[in-house]
Amino acid sequence: EGRVPPEPRSPPHAAPPRPAELAAMYKNEGNAYFGEKDYGRAVRAYSEGLRQRFGDVELRAVLLSNRAAAHCRLGNYRSALADATQARKLKPDHLKAIVRGALCHMELRNYSEAITWCEEGLRIDSKEKKLLEMRCKADKLKRVEERDARKAKAMAKKEQCQKERLLAAIKERNIKLVVEPSSEEEEISGSLAEICLDGFHSDNATGAKVHLDADGNLNWPVLFLYPEHEQTDFIEAFHENSRFIDHLMVMFAELPPWDLERKYLPRNLELYFEDEERAEMYELNPAHTLLQVLQHQRYFVKAGTPTVLAFVKSSPFSKKYFSGKKVHRL
């Protein structure tokens, strides 16, 4: 009887590439993308290579160093630095990784660290041009940074001294400050004012602030409000010993264009300040100085800008405005 012939054997399948071979393939792919300046794909290719489980330390260091270079080109300096650091741990004499790590520190303005990396690289190759140039540049920039830090510290100290002198002068005159904004306005003590002084300033467009002049006198930004016409005047530096009437004489030497009835003459004006806490109005004596007004027991300087309201005496608007309000008159 006839024998059944055996079935032919199928050809053996090719063995899959080993992890190290795959990693090398991804490295080459990443290098090709890098050469084409497609740095995003280069990063992804190197990352795929690093995901492979292989024990070739040299290859892993190269992949990390190459990914650091791609990250650098993308401006991802912190990621690049992390890769360069890992590459250097795996292979301490990997010069390219050191160069790239030093470059990252330069871009991140970590000049001391950049110098350290450069010096480590120069111990491997004392003639490496990039490291020599980078160390020189990092040293110069570090000196500039240190000089600027010293200047800033000295300036901050000077400003703090000026603030302390200013607060002492205000406290000495028994002037009460209120800082805004706050949920609840409250008089601030000397110590609290010292903490909050950065918020204690005028909100006016010029940014004028209270200051001490060379003679130790306070000069304040002062806001005049004219409620009837919704107009304002602003004096950037009202000397504490100047009288209100003197400023009014200058401000209304010529009648403003909005005063169509020509009634805003200094002798016709009454000045007031408002005690918002009690919802009361206080009339000022125009012959008084700014300091005399600021020292009033119910005057509180808000946001660093003393404010006064001006009305025409006995005008219909004035009578209506003060109707129902408690007014302390001279």
UniProtKB/TrEMBL annotation:
It holds the Pfam family Wheel. Belongs to the TTC4 family. One of its GO terms (cellular component) is nucleus. CDD domains: CTWD_Cns1 (cd21380). One of its GO terms (biological process) is protein folding. Keywords: Repeat, TPR repeat. GO terms for molecular function: Hsp70 protein binding; Hsp90 protein binding. It comes from the Eukaryota. The keyword 4Fe-4S does not apply. Residues 213-314 form the Cns1/TTC4 wheel domain. This is Cns1/TTC4 wheel domain-containing protein. InterPro entries: Csn1/TTC4_wheel, TPR-like_helical_dom_sf, TPR_rpt. It comes from Meleagris gallopavo.
